[in-house]
Design brief:
The protein is of the alpha/beta class and 194 residues long. The protein has one domain. Helix content is 22%, strand content 35%. It is built from 3 helices and 8 strands. The strands form 2 sheets. A 5-stranded mixed sheet has the order 1-2-3-5-4, covered by helices on one side. The radius of gyration is 18 Å and the shape is globular.
């Protein structure tokens, strides 16, 4: 499922359909998914305040609503920066949990300022034995390289979980390293996947 807070002023015209954050509709859609036999529900949601590295109270409220009504994982976007990842453990089974990725950050972007020049790939492993559940979750930080290669302006997604690639110039290496460190510090509760 997916939904958004809005369309940045762009009108929605038929035949296009945009699912807005409407709790009554979301509750109904989650119930329909369960009735249809869906065994793991991921909600992707466009929410939050741009450039804020911490989720806000509205995001937490909506996340709790979604999880309480049947969502198993929430993947957020819109802030253009990485935001925290949270686990919500099942009260009756402390080994079972749900995940909220408040914001993946920027995956491909021309934004070059600190915190805005990268994002994360979120990795999740599911297992189905009776019910489907999360058995492992991690992330890979990725930094967006923007530069001239072979006389052409190029953008490249550079995984920076471990070593920073040698082919980057000195300034890019420094910025990629800073992004990696900032991200690891923010997401210190989640394992890094190289």
């Amino acid at each position: 499922m997916n939904c958004t807070y809005g369309t940045n002023g762009i009108p929605v015209r038929a035949p296009n359909v945009v699912n807005f954050i409407d709790t009554a509709q979301l509750k109904s859609d989650l119930a329909k998914a369960k009735q249809a036999g869906v065994d793991f529900t991921i909600v992707t949601i466009h929410w939050g305040n741009e450039y804020e590295r911490k989720e806000n109270s509205n995001q937490r409220h909506i996340a709790n609503f979604l999880l309480n009504n049947g969502a198993d994982m929430i993947i957020g976007s819109h802030p253009h920066v990485v935001q925290p990842i949270a686990r919500r453990y099942n009260s009756s089974d402390s080994s079972s949990y749900k995940i909220i990725v408040y914001s993946l950050g920027n995956y491909v972007s021309n934004q070059r300022d600190r915190y805005k020049d990268g994002g994360i790939m979120f990795n999740v492993k599911l297992r189905k034995i009776g019910k489907t559940e999360i058995v492992d979750a991690s992330y890979t930080p990725v930094w967006v390289f923007k530069g001239i290669i072979n006389k052409k302006l190029q953008y490249k997604i550079v995984p920076v979980a471990d070593e920073i690639p040698e082919w980057l110039d000195t300034d890019s290496k420094s910025k990629a390293e800073q992004f990696k460190n900032d991200t690891k510090e923010l997401l210190n509760n989640v394992p890094v996947f190289p």
